[in-house]
Write a structure and sequence with these properties.
Length: 566
């Protein structure tokens, strides 16, 4: 069986978890409807088998060979129908599960991309990871179980009608006993889901904590904080394990009840049916049929219990997905987007007074590094501001246009898992000369040469096999390969040694010749190679000129880049 995720997942109904699940089912109407029809056929075929066996036994007791052969043939036909419907139902169920799960993954990834830089501030990392690893399973199960649950319900109704027709007292015992059993089992489902919900939240928080520890491991080791956080994580992990044991305890009680209660009910109905057969109130064939029905009801009862359980879990999972889908990005496209001329244009941050002439290598040195970061955020339109390109406010341009023409590269960027070549050239431009030039400009050729397979080597999660300086150089090479019209770099050499920084400073201007480049730094090596240096204090431009001119004429600038008090 082949399955391909939908190219366009569609626009979800995120008004509530229930509406979202219904929308998922509606996106695959044909397969979902076929699953329900096959589920009903599969269960009803099984439900009719005890009746056929009973009729065959009655024919045998009357020595009616014709009746025996007829009902034996009916039983064979029901068996074949049940087998075929079961196989096809399972195929539909798997397809429905995959479609619901992977459509949710597509929507989650789309929502994460839509939120962009606002995602970490709005949703915990562990929450997003848990949606992609745990919640999609529950949503897939919720869509899958609908077919079996519907078939089980129809089968129980079919059995009830047959039993009431054969014997009203015995039929009433079965008809009334089934809801009682469901109610008893249902008493265990609610506390189970409360425990599961709390466990799921704790798991998401712990996943976030683990990610934070891994991403900051080098810093933690440097300040000696690794043992403290490791001990705290261990304590929280043990608490989560104990919580998981409590959840498993309730689950085991539910599983035991699903076996014990139907089994006890089977014994009761069989005993009553045997007494009725001895009194002549039902035939031997009906006794066999009653036993068969009671044994058969164990299956649809468990199916219904499972359906309630999985639908409830799916609803809880869908609630989390809907919560993510309902988040809106901090920045949205204007209702009537403006246009700007093609080619480099002056980029201006009105608030600080920073002006970036097109095609030049500019540097910003700020007394407070956060001021430089804030300027870059405004120029890259990661916050709303009055910044302009070609005199047109960035807020009036489509966000995609801004991202295409202005690239911000900071030290929060990550290296992703996969071949290093695909990481450095994600758009697969195939320009090996440009790639080699970018690696030389970023002083990263030695990193590639040290890898066993060179550019074909696989990068581990977040590039953890590389040191902080190596990661920084690879990120810079990736930004240079992208060759954007305007490149805004934030402290691109903060984690490298002085010799490497000197090589990067010497090669960066040539690598970006003719393109607008801004570097936020207080490194004299980089500032010395800039065409123009802008000195920022208290978030405002206070001086401009070459590095040498500012160093000689501006004491505050000299103190900033020399790391000494003026």
């Amino acid at each position: 069986m082949r399955f391909s995720p939908a190219g366009d997942p569609g626009v979800p109904d995120d008004r509530s978890a229930t509406r979202y699940l219904i929308w998922l089912a509606g996106r695959q109407k044909l397969m979902f409807g076929a699953g329900i029809l096959l589920g009903v056929t599969w269960m009803v075929a099984q439900a009719l088998m005890p009746a056929a066996v009973g009729r065959a036994v009655d024919g045998l007791s009357r020595r009616d060979d014709s009746a025996l052969l007829t009902w034996a043939s009916v039983l064979l036909g029901l068996g074949v129908l049940q087998a075929v419907a079961g196989v096809l139902r399972h195929q539909c169920a798997v397809r429905n599960w995959l479609a619901a799960a992977y459509r949710t993954v597509q929507l989650t990834v789309t929502a994460a991309n839509r939120l962009g830089a606002a995602l970490p501030r709005r949703v915990a990392t562990g929450e997003v990871v848990s949606i992609g690893t745990s919640d999609i399973n529950q949503i897939g199960h919720a869509v899958d179980i609908t077919a079996r649950g519907t078939g089980a319900l129809v089968a129980i109704v079919t059995v009830a009608v047959i039993l009431l027709d054969a014997s009203v007292p015995l039929g009433l015992v079965v008809v009334l006993g089934v809801p009682v059993l469901m109610a008893v089992v249902g008493l265990l489902i609610r506390p189970l889901h409360r425990q599961q919900h709390a466990y799921r939240d704790a798991e998401g928080k712990l996943t976030t904590r683990a990610g934070d520890i891994v991403s900051g491991l080098r810093v933690l080791r440097g300040v000696g904080g690794e043992p403290v956080l490791s001990a705290r994580y261990q304590a929280e992990s043990q608490a989560l394990r104990a919580h998981g044991v409590r959840v498993a305890r309730v689950e085991s009680l539910l599983e035991a009840a699903q076996v014990l209660l139907p089994g006890a009910f089977l014994v009761l109905v069989t005993w009553l049916a045997a007494r009725f057969a001895l009194d002549g109130r039902i035939s031997p064939g009906q006794l066999v049929a009653f036993y068969g029905y009671t044994a058969f009801l164990v299956s649809p009862l468990r199916q219904l219990t499972e359906a309630v359980d999985k639908l409830t879990r799916g609803h809880v999972a869908a609630r989390r997905v809907v919560r993510l889908l309902q988040l809106t990005p901090e920045l949205v496209d204007p209702p009537r987007p403006a246009t700007v001329p093609d080619g480099p244009g002056e980029l201006v941050d009105v608030e600080s007074g920073v002006r970036l002439p097109p095609g030049r290598f500019t540097a910003i040195a700020a007394t407070v590094p956060e001021d430089a970061v804030a300027i870059v955020d405004r120029l890259g339109r990661y916050v709303d501001s009055d910044a302009t390109l070609h005199g047109v406010p960035l807020r009036e341009l489509p966000l995609a246009t801004v991202r295409e023409r202005i690239l911000v590269a900071d030290n929060d960027a990550q290296l992703f898992t996969g071949p290093l070549l695909a990481e450095l050239d994600p758009h697969d431009r195939g320009d090996r000369a440009a790639l080699d030039a970018a690696l030389r400009a970023a002083s990263a050729t030695d990193i590639v040469e040290a890898l066993p397979d060179g550019l074909d080597s696989r990068v581990a999660e977040r590039g953890r096999e590389f040191s902080g300086g190596q990661q920084q150089r690879l990120r810079l090479a990736r930004a240079l390969v992208a060759a954007p019209e305007t490149l805004l770099l934030v402290e691109p050499t903060s984690a490298v040694d002085a010799h490497t920084e000197a090589r990067i400073a010497a090669g960066l201007g040539a690598a970006r010749a003719g393109r607008t480049t801004l570097v936020c730094t207080t490194s004299p090596l980089l500032l010395g190679h800039a065409d123009n240096v802008i000195f920022v204090e208290d978030g405002k431009v206070v001086a401009e000129g070459s590095h040498a001119h500012l160093y000689d004429s501006e004491p505050r600038y000299r103190a900033t880049v020399s790391r000494v008090e003026s």
